[in-house]
Amino acid sequence: AAGGASETLTVDMSNTYLQWADRNLVLNGFDGENHKLLQADVLQWLKDPTDRDFDLIVIDPPTFSNSKRMEGTLDTQRDHVWIINQALMICAPGAEIWFSTNYRKFKLDDSGIKSENIQDITKQTIPPDFRNDKVHYCYRIFAR
Prior knowledge:
Number of domains: 2
CATH architecture of the largest domain: 3-Layer(aba) Sandwich
Helix content: 10-25%
Number of strands: 8
Low-confidence stretches: none
CATH superfamily of the largest domain: Vaccinia Virus protein VP39
Strand content: 25-35%
CATH topology of the largest domain: Rossmann fold
Order of helices and strands: EHEHEEEHEEE
Distance between the termini: 24 Å
Radius of gyration: 15 Å
């Protein structure tokens, strides 16, 4: 929101994290109808890409999840290509996806991702004084 977005949508299965996001939005002056919070299984939510047109999507999944509220399990290494490709389907032309993971052994399968422009921006997202530069991986993926 602070980057100039007129609207934001946060999708998370955890009510705890949604409440945290809501508090952060309010603390930063971004409350109201333009900043929505949706409690949902994002894997199910991504299955229906109709009527969505996002300019920027930030994806930061857990390494693994087997919540009772999910139909299956989430494994970031196994599922990242599907997640990113589904997100690309709800992007406006020229939109960006920022994909981040804390999984230390993560390997991006860029050959399966439907984008011709994928940038590894990991180094730019870690402060120079951070003691461990292997804390996460981060990629900038452009929609067509």
